[in-house]
Amino acid sequence: MNDESDAFAPTRKAWRPEVDVEVAALLRVLAARPWLVSGRDDALISAVRRNEGRLRTVYGRLGWVLFVSRDLVRLRKSPPPRRDSWAARAPNSLVCAWFFVLAATAESMPPKVALPHFVTEARVAAAEAGVPSTGEIDERRAIVAAFKLLDERGVVVCLDGDIERYVHDDKAPVLLAVHHVRLTHLIANAGGSDPAADPGAWLDGVEHESDPARRMRRRLVDDTVVHACDLDDAEADWLRRRVRGDDGAPLAEAFGLAVERRAEGAAFVVPEDAYRHPRELGPVPFPITGGTVPHAALLLCDAAGTDGRPAVEAGVPQGAPGPGWHGLSGASVIDRLSDWSATVGAGRGGWSKDLVENPGALAVQVADLLTALDLVRIVSVGAEHAVWWFSPVTGRWPAPAAEPARPKSQPRDAVGMFTETGEVI
Hints:
By secondary structure, the protein is α+β, with helices and mostly antiparallel strands.
């Protein structure tokens, strides 16, 4: 019996990967950027080819498939955790629809094709698929956005011209290159049923993973933090017995990460010297250097830890996710953001003028940031009230003080800059 099918067998052998700095960096980069294409990522592709065997060994622990060729590296990952949060950060439905219409059309296009001809054929395909096509400016913007997503993946690449011109000119002189082989790698998790017939059931099937150990490994690598209150019995057993033992710790070490374990959950933490740029950690690193929304988010995390209503083991109040979480009412969040906006103000070293004047809009953006990372969960209480529940992990980042903006003539010092030490992914 192998490790996957017998995750808790007492005779299993501890997994000890061969740790290497270059391999760890590649593992993290590919987890955040699962497409590497020639002409843009040549150095990374070469590094992947040098270390292909060790990369496959580690990704095999997650059930992720690594494709490697001379001009393409594609990591086929499992669907991301917390479907709703990730969907909220995805392109809108119009962009997504045109992304797949364009991808389907690309299959019949020649290796080089003019943009106007490509779009004309795509509109025919859209009509056959029952996708409305209006030709209005919102649709044009969606088509341009979809082409950019395909370009990022190296599937349909702009060779000449400015694709943005299509928004206002349907005959824009743009030459595209279609890489037909790469089209076959576009869908990482095809599933075994028809997504159009029952989208919910199809998503459930694609996301299903029967092995609790593999589920936990994926969540620790691919999400900010794993909260103990969300786990079933088998997952909780793995977290208790294996996260710092023969499974979790070696996996973290392979990625150049460290296990951080608390009673409320666990996370794989990125040491300060393990990366060069925040973008290597994924789409939403936190905390972020500078900016109104991250600063306000950190101040709220501090306020929740100091003044928030604590959840307790028995009788967790107002729908708290679990023990260790701290709650602030939605009204309190707005009041605090209003007070800090008045204190900080707009200007040099201050906050955005638009958000200072509209604390409600600031609250929405802060909520988007923190809920995307599963650091806040907002629970409705009655028809008009809500409670912001802050994860126990939010206490690990100190917030800079809410100090007034400086006059433009005064040089800016280091106040208000955030440390990136101990970033959590």
